[in-house]
Design a protein that fits this description.
By secondary structure, the protein is α+β, with helices and mostly antiparallel strands. The chain is about 50% helix and about 10% strand. It has a five-stranded mixed sheet with strand order 2-5-6-7-8, with helices on both faces. It has a three-stranded antiparallel sheet with strand order 1-3-4, with helices on one face. β7 and β8 form a beta hairpin.
Amino acid sequence: MFEKIPLSGVSNTEWLRLRKSGIGGSDAGAICGVNPYSSAMKVFRDKTSDVVEELDNEAVRIGHDLEGYVAQRFTEATGLKVRKSNFMYRSVEHPFMIADVDRLVVGEDAGLECKTASAYNADKWKDGNVPLHYMMQCYHYMAVTGKRAWYIAAVVLGSGFTYQKLEWDDGLIARLIEMEEGFWNSYVAKGTIPPPDGSRACDEVLEQYFRKGSDLGGPTMLSRIDGLQSWIIDHKDELPPQPLFRFARKLLQESRNPECVKFALAILELLDTSDDKVRELITALALSDEFTLFCSYVIRGWEDGGQVLFRLAKQVHGWGRVFLVAVLEGNSPEVREWLLWEGWKNSILSS
């Protein structure tokens, strides 16, 4: 069972706000972890953010403008007539699930999803294949509307036309509903950000989140580190260390946002960072006043952490030295002598 939400006369902005009220078909693949262009974290941000983003890039415009053409090609290829719905559908049993469908098939208990693809992605549609995240989109629509089949048709620009029919699958749809319900109740409803998955889409969300926080004077990683680490510790059984390590390392190497780098360092503090390349990167970052404090939290867990921190303390002169002097342990004559004669010298505090 579903309720129908009329879309006639609804502006694009109002339509986008409606999409925030539930999980749509295009969100399903990301939540299942099979969409290479999105992630659960990105869906979470979209559903919980007050910002309504009206995308108007060339790919979006081509897809919108050619939707009718794809539907026409489908009718020519199959002899099946299709019609627009002009409604958004919401599951009564699972109200967090919504569907905004391209077309309904006339005279058959089925719908139609229309896609356009570039010639660069032609191989993903070859030999009757359908990208997995698009399949999840179609099964999501079946779950919401109760229809027993869903067609997906695609025009591969400059290459050709293809379509496939997906049939109702009890097990798959039950599992999809379970995953979407878990995502909605565990993250969106509670306002709790999902764990990172190492995808570029996830990185982009973190970049935007912390960049926005920094621009507004918060949130910064310094105020969030305890909460983040407590959450990771509480969910350690659900977070395999290797994927988490790869995600943090990737963020450390590629992010251009200081707060995201600190985010990665806060994660790495809880993990094994004996990898030589990671050690080298953290040691280099520690020379920047911006990151010295966060790097010191990681370094102090190394077997030779005390020695590394001492070497760094002698190389930095600003806030980095202030931070390191505070954490250095004077358990050797050399360190004690340096702290007495040189450690107090810095470019921040006057003598």
